[in-house]
Each structure stands twice: as structure tokens, then as C-alpha cells.
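Blinded run. Sample ID left blank on purpose so nobody reads anything into the name before looking at the predicted structure. Input follows.
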Amino acid sequence: MIAARHEIADACAGSGNAATLGATDLLSLAAAPTFAIMALLTTVTGGADMICSAAPDASPLNGMVMMYLLMSAFHLAPWLKLVAGRRSAARRS
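Blinded prediction complete.
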């Protein structure tokens, strides 16, 4: 998957389509906060936990909330790359 993304990035850069590359980068940065907000809203409203859990009052971190938190963690890679890139740029200057 990472190799495929690099091939897409190379193809976009080669064709001069920087807007497409920028859109994919923004979309990849949107995933982690979106899932984190969904986890927060599901915790506050208690929405889907009643359907997905056998014991709905056992813990607020079960069912859909846990899934959203895990998805948020799995989608942190673009944010970590962004932070690492800014730190290395700050060290060079």
C-alpha cells in the first residue's frame, strides 16, 4: 500500500497535478481526527453501544467507541510524518 501511494505521488508529480496530491494528503490527515470525534460523540451520546454490546452498561469504552479509537490510532501515520518532517526542517535551518 505504501509503494502504491509512492507510485501515485510520483505519477501526480510527473504529470504536474499537484492539486491531486494535495487533496490526497489532506484526506489522509482528516481520518484520525474524524475517528477521534466519532469516538467522542459515540461516548457522549451512547448511540451505537446499545446495539453492539451484550452488556451495554459494562464500560463506556466498548463496542463502537473502542473501534473508533483504534481506527484513529491506525490513521495517525500521516500526522506523525508531518510532525517528523517539520522537526527535521527546523533542525536544518
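Unblinding after everyone has recorded impressions. Helices lie at 2-15, 18-45, 49-52, 64-74, 77-92.
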